[in-house]
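Worked example 3 (structure in, sequence out).
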C-alpha cells in the first residue's frame, strides 16, 4: 500500500485554509497548515512534507519568497502556488522561480479537485524520480561490486563495446574507456583461434533466440593468460528482427576454477597411477580417501573405511606415535615429511608391518589433515636406499664439512635406523670427534680423541677399507666402548672416518653395511666437494683482491657477438678513465674508451680475444685527463666461442711515449744540426777558405770583406742552431698568459718594419710565456722577411687555440709543409725561424696548420691549446 501524502497548506486566510483542508482530506491527503512563510519553514524542518500548497499574498513574505527559501533546503519538493492573484506577471515570475504548478483560488469543488490532481501528479513524479535515482544507485553499486564485467556491445566480430561496468581493469589490465572509445577491441584480447569459434557459437544462439554461454582465454595487459566465462543474450527491438541491436551479458574470471579443476584432475590421475598405497585422513584422524592400491593392500573397500577413525586398523601405540609425528611436523621445525613404522590389521585379520610416510595437508595456513604413503617392511631396504639418495642431496648442498658430518650421523639414525653413529676428522695424528648422535653419548659416554695408530678406527682409516666388528669384545685395543657390543668403521677418504655401533652383538645385516657404505661414500664426496668449493672461493677471493689492487687499470669483459661487454672494472680503471663500475657494467668497452681515430683496429683485437688469443699491443685510449698511451694486455679465459671472458689490463706508457717522442725530436734536431754543419756551414766556410787563399796570393782587401761576410753567415747559422736546440723544451711550466700582451712584447723586439699589428679577440693561453714570445717573434719576422706586399699582421682566437695571419701574397700550397723544415728559406735568412716555431709548438703539445687567410695571405693556426677568452 503506497504511503499517504502529507500536504503543507500555507495561507493567512483561516476560513479558506479550513475549506481547502476539508477538500484535500476528502481526497485522501494528510494536511497540515501554516498561516505564514516563517511558520511553514519551521514545519518543513519538523514534519515529513510531500508537497507545499501556498498562497501568494501573505503578510511579511509572499509565496514566491517562501518558494525561494524552500528551494534552498528542499530543491525537489513539489511547490504549488494556489493564489487569488491571477496576473500573468505573477504566473511568469512563479514559473521562473521554479514553482511546480500554478493555480488560481476558487471555492468550487472542481477547482479543489483540480488542485488534488496537480498535487497527486507532482508527488508521484517526485517519488518516481527518487525511485529511479535509487535504482540507478543500486544498479551502479551492484555493477561496481560484481566479480566480473557487465557489458553491452554490437554484434560484430570485433565486439565493439557500447557499455562496460564492473571489474574491467582488474580482469584485463585496461581501462573501460579504451574499449568504449574504440582504442582497443575486445577481440584483440582473445587468443586465436577462439574468436572464430566464439562468433559461431553466439550466432547460433542468436538464430535460435536463446541465451549463450562461452568460455575462452584472453591475454591481459601484463601478458598473463586468463580464462573467462561469458553469459549473454541478444537484444532485439522486434521479435521478427533478424539481427539484434546489441548483445548484453556478464563476463567472469574462471582462471582459478580452471586451474583448480585441472590440478585436481592431474592429482587424481597421479594418485591412481602411483604404485604405492596412498590414503588421506582429516584433522580428526578420520579416513577421507584411498587409492586402488591401498584397497588391494588393506583388503578393505574404500567405502568401508572412509569416515572411520584410523584406530579401526591401528593399535593405540601406533595412533599416538602418528599424532606425535604430525605435531612435530606442525611445530615449524622445517621438516615437511616424516617416516615411521606401523602395524596394520587388514580386512582379513592379517597384521602387516608397514613403513608410513606422512605429510600434513595445509590450506591457507590451516591444518586440514594428512596424506600418507604405505610401504611393506620387506621393501625396507629399497625404501631406505631411496631416502638415503634424498639425504644425499642435502649433503651435497652443504659447504661446511662439520655440518656434513652432522647430517651424516642424522641420516644414520633417521634413515638407516642406526642410532649409535659418529664422524671423526683427521687432525694431525688423531681422529677428532666432530659429530655424534645423542644415543651414542647415552650408551657409550663422552668420546675422547682416537689416535690413528692403534685402535680399530685408526686401522680402518689407514687401510682405507670398511671394517666390521660383530663383537667389539674381541678387538685388541684399549678403547672404552661403553654399552656398544658391535661396531663398523667406514673411511671417509683422507678426511676421517664414519662409525656406527649397536648394543647387540652381530647387529648389522648385509643391507645395513651396504647402506652405511653408500652413506659414507656420499659423505666423503660431499666433504671433498665442500673442500674444493672452499678452495675455489678462496681462489676467487684472492682473484677479486688481486683485481681490486692491480695498480694498472683493469677491466673484466665478456665477448658477446665479438663485442667486449664490461663485467667489472677495478679502482685504478675508475681513477684513470673517470668511470665508476656502476657507470659502465654492461656497456661496450670500445664505445667507452676507444677514440674515433683508433677504432679501425678494434675489430681485429676483438676477433683475437673472442678466439681466446692473448696479446700485447700499444694503444691510445681516451681517459678522464685526455688521450693517453697504454700497453694493452689482453688475457682471455674460457675462450673459443662468442662468449669468451677475459681481462684487459692497461699499462700507462704515456710518459715513456712522450720521452720517446722527445728523443725522436732531439734526434731529428741532431740530424738537422748535422745537415747544417755538413751542408749550410760548409758553404760559407769554403767561401772563407777560398777568399783567404786569394788574399794571401793577391793581398787585395776585397777578399777580407768577403771572408768577414762568410764569418757573419756562419755565426748567424750557429745562433739559429742553438736557438732551435733550446726550443725543444719549455723553460717553465705552462701558465695562463694573455696572448695580446705577449704578442705586443714580441712585436717590440722583432723586425717588423712598416707592418701593422692587429687583434681579433685574442684568448688567454696556457703556455710558457718566454717560448710563446719567441714563437710569435719568428712568425712576425717571417712576415717581414717573406710576406711580400703584407701591411698587417693579425693575432686572433680559435675555439681550441689561436692564429696568426698576414694580408700578403700567402704561401703556395706546395710549400706549406716544407716551410717548417730547418734551413728551408724562401730567400735570404737561415731558414730556422719557422722550424723554431714548429719546435715550440710541439713542446707545448699543440698542432700547427698552414692555410690561406681570407685576404689571401698566410695563416698559421695553432690548435689543441687550452684557452679562455680575455676579459
Amino acid at each position: 500500500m503506497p504511503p499517504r501524502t502529507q500536504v503543507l497548506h500555507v495561507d493567512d486566510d483561516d476560513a479558506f485554509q479550513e475549506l481547502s483542508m476539508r477538500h484535500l482530506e476528502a481526497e485522501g491527503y494528510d494536511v497540515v497548515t501554516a498561516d505564514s512563510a516563517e511558520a511553514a519553514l519551521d514545519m518543513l524542518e519538523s514534519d515529513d512534507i510531500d508537497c507545499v500548497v501556498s498562497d501568494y499574498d501573505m503578510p511579511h513574505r509572499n509565496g514566491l519568497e517562501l518558494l525561494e527559501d524552500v528551494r534552498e533546503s528542499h530543491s525537489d519538493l513539489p511547490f504549488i502556488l494556489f493564489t487569488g492573484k491571477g496576473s500573468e506577471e505573477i504566473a511568469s515570475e512563479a514559473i521562473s522561480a521554479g514553482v511546480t504548478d500554478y493555480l488560481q483560488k476558487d471555492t468550487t469543488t472542481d477547482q479543489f479537485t483540480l488542485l488534488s490532481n496537480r498535487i497527486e501528479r507532482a508527488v508521484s513524479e517526485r517519488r518516481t524520480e527518487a525511485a529511479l535515482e535509487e535504482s540507478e544507485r543500486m544498479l551502479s553499486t551492484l555493477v561496481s561490486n560484481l566479480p566480473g564485467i557487465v557489458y553491452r556491445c554490437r554484434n560484430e566480430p570485433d565486439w565493439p563495446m557500447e557499455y562496460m561496468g564492473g571489474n574491467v581493469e582488474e580482469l584485463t589490465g585496461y581501462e573501460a574507456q579504451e574499449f568504449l572509445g574504440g582504442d582497443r577491441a575486445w577481440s584483440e584480447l582473445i587468443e586465436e583461434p577462439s574468436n572464430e569459434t566464439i562468433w559461431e557459437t553466439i550466432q547460433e544462439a542468436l538464430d535460435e533466440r536463446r541465451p549463450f554461454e562461452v568460455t575462452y582465454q584472453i591475454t591481459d595487459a601484463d601478458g598473463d593468460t586468463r580464462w573467462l566465462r561469458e553469459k549473454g543474450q541478444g537484444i532485439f527491438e522486434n521479435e521478427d528482427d533478424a539481427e539484434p541491436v546489441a548483445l548484453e551479458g556478464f563476463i567472469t574470471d574462471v582462471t582459478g576454477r580452471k586451474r583448480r579443476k585441472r590440478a585436481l584432475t592431474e592429482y587424481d590421475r597421479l594418485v591412481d597411477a602411483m604404485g604405492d598405497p596412498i590414503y588421506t585422513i582429516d584433522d580428526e584422524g578420520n579416513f577421507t580417501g584411498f587409492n586402488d592400491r591401498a584397497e588391494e593392500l588393506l583388503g578393505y573397500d574404500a567405502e568401508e573405511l572412509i569416515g572411520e577413525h584410523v584406530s579401526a586398523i591401528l593399535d593405540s601405540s601406533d595412533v599416538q606415535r602418528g599424532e606425535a609425528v604430525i605435531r612435530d611436523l606442525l611445530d615449524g621445525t622445517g621438516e615437511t615429511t616424516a617416516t615411521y613404522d606401523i602395524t596394520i590389521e587388514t580386512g582379513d585379520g592379517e597384521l602387516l608391518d608397514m613403513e608410513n610416510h606422512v605429510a600434513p595437508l595445509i590450506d591457507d595456513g590451516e591444518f586440514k589433515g594428512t596424506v600418507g604413503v604405505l610401504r611393506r617392511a620387506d621393501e625396507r631396504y629399497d625404501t631406505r636406499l631411496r631416502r638415503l639418495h634424498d639425504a644425499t642431496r642435502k649433503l651435497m648442498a652443504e659447504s661446511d664439512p662439520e655440518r656434513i658430518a652432522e647430517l651424516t650421523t642424522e641420516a644414520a639414525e633417521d634413515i638407516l635406523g642406526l642410532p649409535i653413529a659418529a664422524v671423526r676428522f683427521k687432525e694431525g695424528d688423531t681422529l677428532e670427534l666432530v659429530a655424534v648422535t645423542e644415543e651414542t653419548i647415552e650408551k657409550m659416554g663422552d668420546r675422547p680423541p682416537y689416535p690413528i695408530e692403534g685402535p680399530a678406527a685408526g686401522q680402518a682409516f689407514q687401510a682405507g677399507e670398511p671394517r666390521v666388528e660383530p663383537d667389539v669384545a674381541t678387538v685388541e685395543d684399549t678403547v672404552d666402548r661403553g654399552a656398544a657390543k658391535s661396531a663398523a668403521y667406514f673411511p671417509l677418504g683422507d678426511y676421517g672416518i664414519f662409525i656406527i655401533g649397536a648394543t647387540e652383538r652381530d647387529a648389522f645385516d648385509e643391507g645395513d653395511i651396504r647402506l652405511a657404505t653408500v652413506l659414507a661414500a656420499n659423505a666423503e664426496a660431499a666433504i671433498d666437494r665442500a673442500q674444493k668449493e672452499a678452495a675455489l672461493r678462496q681462489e676467487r677471493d684472492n682473484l677479486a683482491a688481486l683485481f681490486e689492487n692491480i695498480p694498472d687499470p683493469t677491466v673484466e669483459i665478456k665477448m658477446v657477438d665479438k663485442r667486449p661487454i664490461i663485467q667489472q672494472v677495478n679502482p685504478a680503471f675508475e681513477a684513470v678513465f673517470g668511470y665508476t663500475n656502476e657507470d659502465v657494467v654492461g656497456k661496450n668497452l670500445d664505445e667507452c674508451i676507444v677514440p674515433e681515430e683508433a677504432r679501425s683496429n678494434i675489430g681485429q683485437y676483438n676477433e683475437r680475444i673472442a678466439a681466446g688469443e692473448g696479446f700485447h699491443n700499444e694503444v691510445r685510449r681516451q681517459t678522464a685527463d685526455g688521450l693517453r698511451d697504454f700497453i694493452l694486455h689482453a688475457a682471455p679465459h674460457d675462450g673459443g666461442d662468442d662468449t669468451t671472458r677475459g681481462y684487459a689490463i692497461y699499462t700507462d706508457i704515456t710518459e715513456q711515449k712522450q720521452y720517446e717522442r722527445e728523443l725522436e725530436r732531439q734526434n731529428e734536431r741532431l740530424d738537422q744540426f748535422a745537415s747544417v754543419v755538413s751542408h749550410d756551414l760548409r758553404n760559407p766556410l769554403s767561401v772563407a777558405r777560398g777568399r783567404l787563399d786569394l788574399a794571401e796570393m793577391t793581398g787585395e782587401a776585397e777578399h777580407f770583406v768577403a771572408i768577414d761576410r762568410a764569418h757573419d753567415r756562419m755565426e748567424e747559422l750557429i745562433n739559429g742552431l742553438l736557438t732551435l736546440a733550446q726550443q725543444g723544451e719549455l723553460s717553465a711550466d705552462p701558465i695562463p698568459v694573455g696572448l695580446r700582451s705577449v704578442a705586443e712584447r714580441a712585436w717590440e723586439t722583432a723586425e717588423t718594419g712598416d707592418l701593422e699589428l692587429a687583434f681579433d679577440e685574442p684568448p688567454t693561453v696556457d703556455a710558457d710565456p718566454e717560448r710563446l714570445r719567441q714563437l710569435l717573434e719568428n712568425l712576425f719576422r717571417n712576415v717581414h722577411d717573406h710576406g711580400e706586399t703584407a701591411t698587417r699582421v693579425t693575432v686572433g682566437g680559435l675555439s681550441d687555440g689561436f692564429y696568426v695571419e698576414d694580408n700578403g701574397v700567402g704561401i703556395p700550397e706546395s710549400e706549406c709543409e716544407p716551410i717548417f723544415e730547418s734551413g728551408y728559406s724562401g730567400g735570404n735568412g737561415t731558414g730556422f725561424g719557422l722550424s723554431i716555431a714548429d719546435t715550440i709548438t710541439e713542446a707545448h703539445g699543440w698542432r700547427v696548420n698552414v692555410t690561406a687567410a681570407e685576404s689571401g695571405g698566410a695563416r698559421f693556426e695553432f690548435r689543441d691549446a687550452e684557452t679562455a677568452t680575455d676579459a
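Notes: The chain has a mean pLDDT of 83. The longest strand covers residues 351-363.
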